[in-house]
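Have a close read of this protein, sequence plus structure tokens, and explain what the tokens say about the fold. Thanks in advance:
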Amino acid sequence: MASAPLSRRCPVDVCVHSHLAVSFCLLFAPMSAVATAQERLTKEQIIKLMRDSDVQFNNIAISYDYTAYRPRVDSAQEQIVLETRVEVDPDVDPAGMPDKGQLFELADKFMRPNPTEQVPEPVGKWVDLLKQGKIRLFAVPLRTDGTEPKEKLDIVTTQRKMALRWPDFIVHILAGDRMMSKYGSFGQNMHTLYSRGERHPAWFHKQDRRAEFPNVYQEDVVLLKFCFGLGFAQYLKKIDNLDVNGDGYHLTADFELSKGRSGKAELFIDDALIVRRAEIDVSAHHVSVTTSGRFISDSGWSCAKSGTFQLTRPDKSTERKFEAILVSAQALSNTEFASLADMTSPEDQARYEDEGGRLRQVRSSAYLRAKQ
């Protein structure tokens, strides 16, 4: 991944390879704890209620439908050229600024999540300006005749189960009743387990060491929270304005997703303090979130039933888009989480360990053992 700080490259997923949304947790806000807009909550009260609700569901199991929209260009590669340009805010002194090619290299190297290298001092100023959006880079694909190719989105839907004991989580991806793959983050350890084949499937397991919390997979949990009107409060810094908007609120604020990735947010919040629409500009990209419906449990907590997340580049093209629909949710014990997070595979099926890109077979299938 070489562009937006919010885009992701996730582990192998049998159904969806790349931009895998690893999971999400749901904000269960007890209806009795939420005031109506007519009571005109203060900024501080709203943020506190939203944060308090977030804390209530750190242990949960959910089932959901996940749809990924994967961008592609409807044109042969040889017919496409990239037109690149740079925009600089008027208050930026261009003296000593790297050339266009160097700026693109800096963005590729240091604006991705958890970069592997420290930003060298001589270029630190320019990397900061890129993150702040004061220097904006554009790479627009054009046909050789100068017209823009039409963007298309491949659509893939999967059914998933997720167990969350924040900040640890595990996601199961299903094909009917059969578990096709699972992946999860436990501390700094990222595990992936997936199968190949149908009649005599083989299982492949990989373990990676990731950065300390929050790593990119845990951040994906947060992005999916956004889809359900949740998780925004902890990233709101200075609130600029709060107005009553019908039965809810309209809020604008400074927004900081992580250090060096900040911008402005505009939120439309209903009377249950579920965000129904969010427009966020961060790191020169735009995030748009819409939610709909309401999921209400037997015990009275609620969240949005479904939502859509979309990340667009400065040139307005789609970098990432997904939607999720909640099917069920229930409280989760530590024992249940441990069972769902188990990375063993069926004893009668083959298993391989991925060790630094090299596969080591640790078990052959019962079918092959019987034929030997």
